[in-house]
Amino acid sequence: MSRTAGVEVAPVNVSEPGGGTGDRVRPRYLRTKSIEQSIQDTEEPEHTLTRSLSVLDLTVFGVGVIIGTGIFVLTGSVAKEQAGPATALSFVAAGIACALAALCYAEFASTVPVAGSAYTFSYASLGELPAWIIGWDLVLEFALACAVVSVGWAGYIRSLLDNAGWQLPDALSGPEAAHGFSFDLLAFLLVLVITAILVFGMKLSARVTSAVVAIKVIVVLLVIIAGAFFIHPENYHPFVPEAQGSVSGSGLKAPLIQLMFGYEPTTFGLQGIFTGAAVVFFAFIGFDIVATAAEETRNPQRDMPRGILGSLLICTVLYVAVSIVVTGMQKYTKLSVDAPLADAFKATGHPFYAGLISFGAAVGLTTVSMILLLGQSRVFFAMSRDGLLPRVFSRVHPRYGTPYRSTIVLGVVIAVVAGFTSISELAALVNIGTLFAFVVVALGVIILRRTRPDLPRAFRTPWVPVLPILSVAASLWLMLNLPAETWVRFGVWMVIGLLVYVLYGRRHSRVSAAGTRTE
């Protein structure tokens, strides 16, 4: 019997979770991987990550990836277009939906302290094919989000350079700045730099993230405190503006719920608050990435729940505070969409704070990109270690203890994508991918409570199965409010993933191979 991160691990065959024989009657593609075997796999010398993270590191990672452009942009755009001053309630609603999912993630991450997040949790509860689907989904989600954020970071840096009188040639400023050939050099270089930081070790990554997050949070707090002195109470009236027409599009641009049921979300009013919640949800994406670092946490049973829930609570409070400040400084009908917070300060005659906001956004997006790449490389690493992707990508560096091969390959691919592609229109794919993961994790909590009631759980999701069911319902509601074209693109990616699984993953799966040998 071995012991890993305070968890006793008994040798149990991968095809028989909990030591039972239930998986012998399952189809190969629905075989589950036992918790015990998942933890045992973390002890393989060439596939073992270094445990160096504390609860503070995890909380900083969570805050670092959650707080990005959303706090500077979405707060104003949603106020002007969907909810008015009640945008604060939209953030609360989205925060509650995320909290339901966070409670489910906290139980899984403390019970299964293994890299891979929702992929690993799905393998333990739903089976191999569902795990592959969610892993493939997360690979797209994190890659796309990292590329989008890197392009956004490059835009802020170019703006700061322009203010200083320096300009990059259009050909090196990205597709949106030039016709014909163009390459976003800044976005490309950012991804390469953060790739190198991640290869050199998690502790170095944590130190860089801590320093940058400290700067980012200080900037946000200064903006909140300074903005509070420029609030005009009359701007809050009416707090919940009267409902005004529809926000629906037509064809594939329309929300899926409209095409299915004829329901048309409205702007403003009570429905506008929840329509806004579906939009600001993008600003909360990231807390789930904390779970991907479970295998590199010194005391995951204690620290994972604290890191996940703590970072979400901190960011929700900051989001609500910023939304209250920005709608109090300037009437919601006059807010700009592109840079509402910065323009609100300009409107009050304080352009210094507008520059401070741009600086905070540029600094902050550095950590967002890095932690997104961290999350993707860990999911990729876990899938590779299970044989669903080539095992060569799950080798860890002999000195730094990081999955350097998968990190370098993914980093170079994302850098090229960020350099050549304008992909802002694909950002909704990040939302649907995250929500899909939330649904799977919530269902997994219910299933694992029934199939493995014997597992020691350092943190238990309260009110099971009611709370996970509410989490599923909230996530599905937000998914239905996304455009139909997002669902089509998501479906295409899933079909590609199924083909990869059939042609490679199913044949090389270590779980299926072990199950075949025991039959």
From TrEMBL:
<feature type="transmembrane region" description="Helical">
    <location>
        <begin position="129"/>
        <end position="157"/>
    </location>
</feature>
<feature type="transmembrane region" description="Helical">
    <location>
        <begin position="460"/>
        <end position="480"/>
    </location>
</feature>
<keyword id="KW-0472">Membrane</keyword>
<feature type="transmembrane region" description="Helical">
    <location>
        <begin position="177"/>
        <end position="200"/>
    </location>
</feature>
<dbReference type="InterPro" id="IPR002293">
    <property type="entry name" value="AA/rel_permease1"/>
</dbReference>
<feature type="transmembrane region" description="Helical">
    <location>
        <begin position="86"/>
        <end position="108"/>
    </location>
</feature>
<keyword id="KW-0813">Transport</keyword>
<feature type="transmembrane region" description="Helical">
    <location>
        <begin position="404"/>
        <end position="423"/>
    </location>
</feature>
<feature type="transmembrane region" description="Helical">
    <location>
        <begin position="429"/>
        <end position="448"/>
    </location>
</feature>
<feature type="transmembrane region" description="Helical">
    <location>
        <begin position="268"/>
        <end position="287"/>
    </location>
</feature>
<feature type="transmembrane region" description="Helical">
    <location>
        <begin position="212"/>
        <end position="231"/>
    </location>
</feature>
<feature type="transmembrane region" description="Helical">
    <location>
        <begin position="308"/>
        <end position="332"/>
    </location>
</feature>
<feature type="region of interest" description="Disordered">
    <location>
        <begin position="1"/>
        <end position="26"/>
    </location>
</feature>
<feature type="transmembrane region" description="Helical">
    <location>
        <begin position="352"/>
        <end position="375"/>
    </location>
</feature>
<dbReference type="Pfam" id="PF13520">
    <property type="entry name" value="AA_permease_2"/>
</dbReference>
<protein>
    <submittedName>
        <fullName>Amino acid permease</fullName>
    </submittedName>
</protein>
<feature type="transmembrane region" description="Helical">
    <location>
        <begin position="55"/>
        <end position="74"/>
    </location>
</feature>
<keyword id="KW-0812">Transmembrane</keyword>
<keyword id="KW-1133">Transmembrane helix</keyword>
<feature type="transmembrane region" description="Helical">
    <location>
        <begin position="486"/>
        <end position="504"/>
    </location>
</feature>
